[in-house]
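Project standup — Tuesday

K.O.: blocked on the structure for the chain from last sprint. Re-posting the sequence here as requested.
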Amino acid sequence: MNRRSFIKNTTYSGLILTYGAYPLIAAADAPEITQLTILHTNDVHSRIDPFPMDGGKNEGLGGAAKRATLIKRIRAEQKNVLLLDAGDIFQGTPYFNFFGGEIEMKLMSEMGYDAATIGNHDFDGGIDGLDRQLVHANFPLLITNYNFDNTLLKGKTKEYSIFHKGGLKIGVFGIGIELNGLVPKSLYKDTIYTDPIVAAEKWASYLKHEEKCDYVICLSHLGYKYGPNENKVSDRYLAENSANIDLIIGGHTHTFLKEPDKLKNRVGNPVLINQVGWAGIVLGRLDIYFERNKKGTCVTCKNILVGTNS
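H.V.: unblocked you, prediction finished:
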């Protein structure tokens, strides 16, 4: 070990001892390290208010106002923040029944969401209803495996977005679940579903190799995992059969992960999967640290309960 490596390793060891597994101050001060904070939700299902104080297990949890407060606080503390959603924004409370998704889109825009993907319940007001609500969204809906060419949504969604944060180039794309058998045809109309693995590989490869993104994120509404007899594509299957995705932010199965799942992709590189249940009860948070070589390491992954003391 040369002198420079010894000093670097000794310094990192000191940071861990001083700050534990959460060296935010040290990382912020270190010129060779950039921190990216990723905040995310999934399957909020029109839960605008917290759960009622009725003795249920979720009483007092969630709520758009508390989530907005958390997001604002984190943005004040961190320079490079992305806020993302993995679908099923709509359906689940009278807010959707009466307003068709307008409130949800307006609140997400006020919170400053950077991007979202489309879940199956986002068609519950019909493709016409989803189209009407896009005017209230100040963020793109990203989807690579739904072809909307023969619908009202033609040209109104995007395959991917690229975000520049602290000298980093972050590519984000979305994939959705099979609609046939899950959503009435009358609601999604002439939307054409294509293989999510093929689409994910195409766009992840494009972002990593053509756009030279430092980190590639997939917003997935496929579901975390299924039983051995269920013939469904999941986030775990996608992770293990991909080559260019760094992080999968999932939805659909309402899976509460205390910390991200870490798998190896088909070429042996790590892929993180995170999902935070449903109803806005938890705000996902991942702090990714990039050294000068732009290789990302997830040092801290702390999902946050959106509770009465948030």
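K.O.: great, moving the ticket to review. The radius of gyration is 20 Å. Residues 1-31 have pLDDT under 50 and may be disordered.
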